[in-house]
Amino acid sequence: MTSLTAERRGADRRGTERRGPNLRGWSGRAIAGVILLVFVLFFAIPIVWLLFAVTKSSKSLIVDNPFALGSWADFTANWNQLFGFQDGAVTTWIGNSALYSVGALIITLLVSIPAGYALALTEFRLRKALLVLTLVVMLIPSTALVLPIFLELNTVGLIGSPLSVILPMSFFPFGVYLTYIYFNTSIPRDLLAAARIDGCTEFQVFTRVALPLAAPVVALVAFFSFVQNWNNFFLPFVMLPSSDGYPVQVGLTSLLAATPAFNPSSAGSDSVQLPTLALATIVSILPVLIVFLFSQRFLVAGMTAGGTKE
Question: Region entry Disordered: which residue ranges (predicted)?
């Protein structure tokens, strides 16, 4: 009898121990779910409001329900006003953004990928010093470098030209470091040594063996570089004195200055209403969103590459 009672008590105690962690697990998941929900609502509500705002007129934006859908006629009117602003300035700004972003991206890939390979898989003097310098430069805010870059480019007479934006944007130490990590952890050195034994030069080893295997990290560097270039504001704002050369992110300031809700003195024939400004915001981020949607498979492969070492 005593042994049976002891067994029952032991079973009850084990059951309590089993239920305890489950209760704690459920409470932890509930708290995490609430926190995630708060963050989702915090970021999602402004985006949803923005999407609805472009379908409304200025009056309905203020009077109607914030999350009520407007009309196609109001959306068309906002679209026409946006792309008719200053005789199609928005189209010019989008073209400038594409030119600066793609031009800087090409130079970034031509420089960052070989640099990361050299730092990871070759031996030369000052190699470790260059790696440390790359890490240090990554920690420097990009805005802190705009003034010395401006003075340097002004000396050679490039201020106001596309090169005054493309060349500084091409300086991407983060891409060099990403490539260094990938080559250092994911490319077998024995494979490269075998290629050298077969008679390949160092350039052939890089282009025929290492580079094809580095496609995921190349895509990752390209995406980060493009997003940073497209969203860059301060550098082109300083380097480009004329609005004809503005990228779309800088051009948004002209639209903001022409909006009477933010600048009452701008009321006139060329003024911009709030729904049109909301549409301009969506148009400015749409290329980045499209690039992300089409490249997310490569981005996931690039982010997970180097996580394990065979």
Answer: 1-20
Number of structural domains the chain divides into: 2
Instruction: Report yes or no on 57 lying in a domain.
Output: no
- Do residue 126 and residue 18 come from a single domain? no
158/231 same-domain check:
yes
Q: How far apart are CA 201 and CA 69, in angstroms?
A: 63
> Is residue 59 in some structural domain?
no
Does residue 146 belong to any structural domain of this protein?
yes
| Percent of the chain residues topping a pLDDT of 70 | 87
pLDDT for residue 4: 45
Residue 289 lies in a domain: yes
CA distances, 59 to each of 41, 53, 64, 70, 246 (Å): 26, 11, 8, 11, 31
CA distance 188 to 74: 59
Q: What is the pLDDT of residue 267?
A: 67
Express each pLDDT in 11-53 by its tens digit. 555 554 444 445 456 777 888 888 888 888 888 888 889 999 9
**Long-range CB contacts (< 8 A, 24+ apart) of 163-167?**
164/239, 164/240, 165/100, 165/104, 165/232, 165/235, 165/236, 165/239, 165/240, 165/247, 166/99, 166/100, 166/103, 166/104, 166/107, 167/104, 167/107
